[in-house]
Amino acid sequence: MFITLAGILAIIGTLAGAYYFEMRPVTLRIAVGPANSDDIKVVQALTQAFAQTHGYVRLRPMQTDGAAASAQALADGKADLAIIRGDLEVPKNAQAVATLRKNVAVLWVPAAAKARGKKAAAKITKIPQLAGHRIGVVGRTQANVDLLKVILQQYGVDPNKIGIVEFPGSEAAEAIRNQKADAYLAAGPVNSKITAEAINASTHDGGIPTFLAIDSAEAIAQNHPMYEASEIPAGAFGGSPDKPDDEVKTISFSHHIVARKGLSEATVAAFTRQLFAIRQQVMSEFPVAAKIETPDTDKDAAIPVHPGAAAFVDGEEKTFLDRYSDFIWWGLMGLSAMGSAGAWFAGYLKKDERSNSSLRERLLDMLAAARHSDSIEELDQMQAEADDILRDTLHCFEHGAIGQGALTAFNIALEQFHNAVADRKALLTSMPQSLQRAGAQIRATGTM
What is the pLDDT of residues 124-163, one digit of tens each? Predict the structure, then answer.
């Protein structure tokens, strides 16, 4: 009984421990940067929302110098999640969880460049005409410079024959007003505040910037799978007249939320579920959160999807019972086996008790027989049998088959038997042999 009870408590304790371990909050480190970027602000908003909703997953932002540094932090195992650019080298241990936003490349020539009377600048209406000019790149990141080079090489423009000027996004509007370059490149979401301010700074005396279409977007996407052919909608950057005044072909790339490959499937599924559950809440403060999308679950996706995120997207997320049903089943089987073993053991003990009960009945029968025995030899045989019964009874008592009360009752019966044997032997010894034989014959005749 105690063994069975211990087994039941052990199984219940194991299940309770597993449930607590699985349901306790998990804090994930997420690498994101640079400082003051939209990505940092969105991640901070997500961190606060996760904490307020008391979700299973909590976030701890790790600020980095940019997407490249965030990817390296994930590759080194210093972060569990990271915000990375899809056009940069993706760590081997990174798996997609969500698409944070899509970014478009915007190439334009400021209106001021045409108005100041420079003939060469006035002719910049197509990308091949950028050869020999200065191009300003918004944002101090090598990734944007590499993006510009990809575009130029597609049109046969040697990047070594142009001047590239980089400046932070916060200085973009001032640099454009001071005519630091003849054309500019910015990469970010369509509703990017930095890009919009830079384009508005390119407007002069009522003139609007000239947007350079990337007509070979499909070819670039074919040669560089991290890019996609896209379009900038008319009026995307506001103003009157609209900027641009018509749709402009371009290329785009994504910012991804990726997870470390070894991260638990259940944890990533919970994070993905929480992310899309609070997306509407974060949108009120950061409209860019509206662009968060589920990852590409195709097998040929540029970044393989994490199994946990795929389970959420496909509606195959496993519950606690789903994950541990096998263990629960085996636990129940073990409990059943222990119950059967306990029942067998209890039956075994009962068997000894029943056996001892029959021995006690035999002792009482011998007590009655001893009072009428006419042979000392027969009394000695019963005495020897009583000794065996005593030995078996003490053995049962030592193993717990019988209790103290049963042992006391047996001792009384045994004492009565010994007294009866002693009295009968004394009587037979005092009687003449002839009387003993006569009595034995009379009883034998009566019995027959």
Answer: 899 999 999 999 999 888 899 999 999 999 999 999 989 9
Distance CA 323, CA 317 (A): 10
Pairwise CA distance, residues 137 & 171, whole Å = 11
What are the CA-CA distances from residue 75 to residues 40, 91, 206 (Å)?
20, 6, 49
Half-sphere exposure in the Cβ direction for 210 (13 Å, CA): 18
Give the pairing type, strands 228-232 and 248-260.
Answer: antiparallel
At residue 23, does pLDDT exceed 70? no
User: Is residue 255 within a helix (H) or strand (E), and if so which, with residue range?
Assistant: strand 248-260
| pTM summary value | 0.66
Distance CA 305, CA 314 (A): 12
DSSP string, 359-372: HHHHHHHHHHHHTT
Determine the length of the chain. Answer: 448
Alpha-carbon gap, residue 305 to 98, rounded angstroms: 9
Name which of 342, 359, 343, 367 is nearest 396 in CA terms: 359
Are 50 and 102 contacting, i.e. CB atoms less than 8 angstroms apart?
no
DSSP-derived 3-state class of residue 36: coil
Please work out, in degrees rounded to the nearest 5, the angle formed at the alpha carbon of residue 113 by the alpha carbons of 110 and 114: 100
State both tokens at 200.
């508005």
Q: What is the pLDDT of residue 117?
A: 45
Please state, in angstroms and rounded to a whole number, the distance separating the CA atoms of residues 100 and 52.
21
Q: What is the pLDDT of residues 190-202, one digit of tens each?
A: 888 888 888 988 8
Q: 84, 73 in Cβ contact below 8 A?
A: no
Angle at which helices 67-75 and 142-154 pack, to 10 degrees? 110
Which of 102, 47, 445, 29 shows the shortest CA–CA distance to 296? 102
Cross-strand partners of 228: 252
Tell me which long-range contacts 431-436 makes (C-beta under 8 A, separation of at least 24).
Answer: 436/374
Stretch 316-325: mean pLDDT: 58
CA separation, residue 362 to residues 389, 405, 420 (Å): 9, 18, 15
| Start-to-end Cα distance in the chain | 52
